[in-house]
Amino acid sequence: MRIMRIFRHLETILATLLIGGFLSATLARLAPGFGADEQELDSRLSAESIRQIRESHAQERNILHFYFNYLKRAIHGDLGTSRSLGKPVRQLIADRLPITVRLCGLGLLVGWTVGLALAIAVVMAQVRVLDVFAAGLAGTFLSLPAAVLALLFVYFNAPASLAISSIVFPKVFSFSRNLLAQSYGLPHIITARAKGLGSARIFGWHVLPVAGPQMLALAGVSVSMALGAAIPVEALCGISGIGQLAWQAALGRDLSLLVTVTVLVTVVTLAANTGSDLAMDIFRGQQA
Amino acid sequence: MKRRSILAFLIFVLVLTRVLSYAQSGDELRFYLRSDPKTFNPLLVADDASETIRYLTGGVLVRVNRQTQQLQPELATAWKLSKDGKSISFNLREHVYFSDGTPFSAQDVAYTVQHLMDPAVHSPTGDSFRSGSGEVRTDVPSPNRITISFPAPVAGMDKLFDHVAVLSSRSPKQEMAVLGPFYVADYKSGSYVLLKRNPNYWKRDSAGRQLPYLNSIRMDIQSNRDIEELKFRRGEIDLVNSLDSEYYDRLASTSAKLLHDAGPSLDSEQMWFNQVGNAPIPAYKKEWFRSTNFRRAISLGINRADLCRVVFALHARPAVGPVSPANKFWFNTKLQPQSFDPASALRFLQQDGFRREGSTLRDRDGHPVEFSIITNSGNKYRERMTTMIQLDLGNLGIHVNVVTLDFPSLIERITQSFNYEAALLGLVNDDLDPNAQMNVWLSSAENHQWNPSEKSPETNWEAEIDRLMRAQPDEGAGVGH
Amino acid sequence: MSGIQKFACWTLAAIVLGGIALSIIVPADYTVQFRETPNAVPTHQHLLGTDELGRDRLARVLYGTRISLLLAPAAAFLSTLMAALIGVVSGYFGSWCERLALAVTDLVLSLPWLFLMLAVRAVLPLNVSPLTSVVITFLLLGLLGWAASARVLCTGTRVLRNSDFILQARASGLHGFRLLAVHIIPNLKPVLYAQFLISVPVFILSEANLGILGLGVAEPLPSWGSLLRELEGWGGFSTEPWKLAPMLLLILVVSCFQVILAREEVSA
């Protein structure tokens, strides 16, 4: 059953990827400015060169034809050449993916560690001042757009991954805090506490199994959250990762690059969500 | 209408104090490129980052000294232009080698020119030599002499060779074998370009020591100017090329000794009206935009001095025409910038039948005078300029909409659909001779933005400019040492 | 309504009313350029100083706040309406309808919506007034922002559909849209209300993000996004603390919504 479920998930992911890639290519193709090249304004260029630049977009004008060829090439590992950056898309992705993985990975790690630690501390300590302080801190970060956080981190010369952490942390904190507070309010946990069970034992044996599945769901969501924040953070902090590449692809109407980046982001988002869904199933299965 | 130079020759500023301290140390120079270089092929260079790489790695026959604006010998020891302006002969330096050890000869120059002028290559540098149809011939009478003949006279031909980095005809490394002071040792897209000292570089200093002094140049790719400024303050980079006025003033307040104001650049900011005959805009607006009185009134109604003071903190000057004061040969010092004179502006408008009705200016048919100015989003200086122009013209009763568009959308509007009314953009110029802007000034040219590709000049002044621009290449003969 | 929730509501009301009251004391409207004093420090005439073109920063902050506070709820209403339509219908009918809706939701969430904003801006006629363009920006945010809410509403509807009282209603002969209108939608009201409240700060922040990336409202109209762009190349706490005013106001407004939302979630 579980294998069937995994297959169904994979089917959905594949279909979403194919349609998502096609839609993003269509969007770029129909957007104003498709086929216009900054180079056309070079006053040195002859009429013939300008004509050639315009004609170079001809192959991409028929979107169905483009997408079919793109998929055909992609099967063989060729993702085309970026028009705006003049380099193979595959090379660009290989160069920049590790940067974004590091940025988001570190951001998620710090965001989750701080958010979860603070939530556990607040719930277990039951100190009003700490609760207000933590809620205020999370509320402040939650009220700042990713782009403002990026600008502030540039100003303070702080690592950009911390900007991602600042976006992830308040959501992890708020969600975990509420979830843990609910879990600690369950009758069997109150009984366990009354019986004098140690805090660590209550948390590990009773709270975690209750809160775990929903935490895993949040883990999946936080990956897409971090990826979504990577675009403004990388664009504004001048980090050459996938987020900046996506921004450049959009600004340059770069079909091959835009489709690849969209598909990549979709894969990661869907895989994270599917992974957390499946982990939740397993978690629940074990509990049952 | 002429493309109005509304202002502004931006000050080109170099921050170089730390460079001097490195000059004799054989250390590494570090600075930022603002984007990835799109190519390492010197013939295809079209962007700033690639241009920087070409400048540091490419060996050229002659070099324009950026300070004196005079030509200096490099790989060519002497050169001579023919009287008809169609050909040029070079005597080449001997015992020169590419970075990979391949010897340099006239064959390499011939190979470079043939590639440069190959129509299939579409080299922007090559296109600036293209003045007429026909084949370009190269004659190599000896390994150290070459004559290059063009089918038609090329204005400022000798200076154009400043941009032609010579390629090796024999090296297996192709364009990566260079004759300049550095070669590209490593590159990671989006991260950095590392240049290393060319061990075969031919130039020596007055003491006979081989140049360059530096062992390497590391150019990290960083688009954020705040980060660039911060890293410069901390000494993590040694040079900032071309500072914005805002950053210049901020650095000046804390680190004035590190700054060097190199004076005006050759660039300018331009505003023009769409005068394309078949543009999809109302006919009455086309009539306004084609009226000299209307355009003159707009020009008089814009406070250029305020733009320079408020937007550029006095690091720009009101323009007197398309030629920058930095251009020592072509700039006419007798000309005065257009004054700000709203009263005269209204008089010019009245001559065309425009009238004020309350706070709105109307044309003779009663249409309220309103138009939009497009500029590229993300350029805060242009956004500020258009907002100030909006207010200046609002005082004349003209309603202006400011529209910022991303670059592709903007280019499509001004080059393909012509669906716009007025535009504000910069004219980047890295050549002293107006010939380099032939494609802007000729009425038949694609880059004659306000009315491109005219079949024949639609106005008398355009016909006159066409005549002058075409006559200019014939004035070309000269000799270099 | 709890004390803190009331306080948050009053704070929001005070910001709106205070904004209107303060508009009277600002020296000029948000478009006027005091060109002799660009980037001025706060004075008795310009309480928050002036921006780079000499415009009174307080006047611009007040107007930008009003714009965001007026249009973000409108966008949130639109997105909640769309989410309700898609989420409730798909959750109610289930089966392939639900699967399709969820797949479409995934698709919408994965599309480069920033790019869509870019494209729509470029498509707009050039003579659209700045106010119309900001309305369109928020409208677009509303049209694009339904997906996450639709997922929540779909799940909520599915839970309701399988509940005992709906089973009883079905047994009593209630079917189709009547069942939806009489039993399901009224029971989803708290979720709808919560989704609406969640969306308001989301759209305020989205507009701010767009503004900083240069895709915000057209000059000379101020918005939080364009005001926050001043933080690019900011001089620092010691030299230009007043430039943080828009950011602090944004934190205050969004925090108020969060407080109201937190209480709503509890009550829901």
Architecture overview:
- The complex is a heterotrimer of chains A (288), B (481) and C (268).
- With 288 residues, chain A is mostly helical.
- Chain A has one domain (2-287): MetI-like (MetI-like fold, Orthogonal Bundle).
- Chain A contains twelve helices and no strands.
- The radius of gyration of chain A is 24 Å and the shape is elongated.
- The two termini of chain A are 16 Å apart.
- Chain B has 15 helices and 21 strands.
- Chain B has a five-stranded mixed sheet with strand order 1-15-20-18-19. Chain B has a five-stranded antiparallel sheet with strand order 8-9-7-6-21, covered by helices on one side.
- With 268 residues, chain C is mostly helical.
- Chain C has a single domain, classed as MetI-like (MetI-like fold, Orthogonal Bundle), CATH 1.10.3720.
- Chain C contains ten helices and no strands.
- In chain C, 48% of the residues are buried.
- Chain A binds chain C through residues 12, 15-16, 19-20, 23-24, 27-28, 30-33, 139-140, 142-148, 151-152, 155, 224, 231-232, 235-236, 246-247, 250-251, 258, 261-262, 265-266, 269-270, and chain C through 103, 106-107, 109-112, 114-116, 118-119, 122-123, 201, 205-206, 208-209, 212-213, 228, 231-232, 234, 236, 247, 250-255, 258-259.
